Amino acid sequence: MKKKLVALTGAGISAESGIKTFRDAEGLWEGHNVMDVATPEGWHKNPKLVMDFYNQRRQQLHEVQPNLGHQILAELENDFEVFIITQNVDNLHEKSGSSNVLHLHGELLKVRSTKNANYILDWETDLNFGDFDDQGNQLRPHIVWFGEEVPALEEAVGIVENADILIIIGTSLQVYPAASLINFAKATIPVFYIDPKPAEIYNLPNNIKVLATTGTKGIKIVQKELEKLQ
Questions:
Q1: Disulfide: which of 15, 40, 44, 217 matches 213 by Cβ 3.0-4.6 Å?
Q2: pLDDT in single tens digits along all 230 residues of the chain
């Protein structure tokens, strides 16, 4: 039976494909204040700005490709039962061939009803005023904004609890509740943490290997380490 390998991925892994993050930009995301484009308040204040912002991100997504970090995670399915829990809203894990991807913070290529959170549609093009659900309600980006509940959190906790190996890639471990997931890992499993500016991890009993480097460089190192753990 294959061991269960769980990868928690953040913005850093997609940054190497050319998708910009706001983590190192003093709260700005593509020149916009995060509070204006990634909060319910921002949506109510200026929905056109928010729709235009995500339309641009969606267009950008069609122009970028997975990098080596994404590809290696997909290849690891040959030897492990791999589950990816990502904070990213892009589809680069799926494009690289990963089978089990859980998006904590929503997906750029989906939209949902403003009145019914369970009414979700695949959406490849621009979202505009007048794009409605089947009850005539405006659609919005299928993104978990700051201050909103994370519907996938319970499922994510269950996945981490059953992990035999945990890899954390490209996340500052500053965004909650996503950052709390590592606390649900069994105390006996190995943990690998890859990030150019790794956060301090306190009170975790696991054997943790920290690699202060990019996702692509770090995952190549971890891939070799994993050969000993099959």
A1: 217
A2: 899 999 999 999 999 999 876 555 555 566 788 899 999 999 999 999 999 999 999 999 999 999 999 999 999 999 999 999 999 999 999 999 999 999 999 999 999 999 999 999 999 999 999 999 999 999 999 999 999 999 999 999 999 999 999 999 998 887 788 889 999 999 999 999 999 988 888 777 788 999 999 999 999 999 999 988 77
Would you list the DSSP string of 127-179? --TT-B-TTSPBEEEEE--TTS--TTHHHHHHHHHT-SEEEEES--S-STTGG
The model carries a pTM of 0.93
β-strands 191-194, 165-169 pairing: parallel
Beta-bridge partners for 110: 122
Domains of the chain, earliest start first: 1-19+67-105+151-230 (3.40.50.1220), 20-63+112-143 (3.30.1600.10)
Centroid of chain to Cα 98: 13
Separation CA 53–CA 49 (nearest Å): 6
Catalytic residue positions, numbered: 105
